[in-house]
Here is the input.
Amino acid sequence: MSFDSMRVLITGGGTGIGRACAELLATQGAKVVICGRTLETLEKTAKEIHSTYGVKVDYLTCDVTQEESVKECLAKAAGSSEDLAGVIANAGGAIGLGSYQDLSAEQYLDTLKLNILGTMHCVKHSISYLANNGGGSFIGMSSIASSLTHRFFGAYTVSKAGIETMMKNAADEYGEQRIRFNAVRPGFIATEMMEVIPRDSEIFKSYVENIPLGQVGKPEDVASLVRFLIGPESSWITGQTFTIDGGHSLRAGPDYSEFFNN
Here is the structure.
């Protein structure tokens, strides 16, 4: 399937899942723009993709927690034609981990601001560009933490569940404009962010033991699902959440007590 002439913006596109999405879509003909907070990371990623695959990926700095930054980024990504075929709201993370007793209100709100408000900014300011395209696909990046308990991740779990609900509501609100909204719910994906978990730790063991397929996922696994949801083959799919976790959600959540009991 060709994505020729499709203009797609990927937030958090410099590393991990975002980068894998950029590589896959760009090599299939999409006009990809990645954005993130760190210019050096974006530049490095764009250069490596070009040298490896011979395709161009544009990049912009953007802080999704700042509305004006998102507004400006989307306008630049849409270009003179003022249209986008897809937006992948991948930027996110957890700011502060710990028990509910130890987590400060500021840490809790910072996580909600990054994940929920950051995604909302992208939704709000992408609508006109997706509509100008005659419709399009918006993907919110969730996590199995939205539905599978993750102790010590009190704010993160709530924020990811919020993204899924946001996608449902937006799908209903903008369906008449042929703008589709779906959420992707990955399990443990071997990205830079997850390198903080030693592979010989009890934490990592608690993941693998609860994944029926017996191994953690790769960013490319998620990118393949995202490609389907961005493309025309999913044109009658909206308001849904797609789990990609090797079966982990069939069992128990991870045990992070090793990080907090020392």
Q: What stands out?
A: The two ends are 51 Å apart (CA to CA). The mean pLDDT is 95. The chain is about 40% helix and 15% strand.
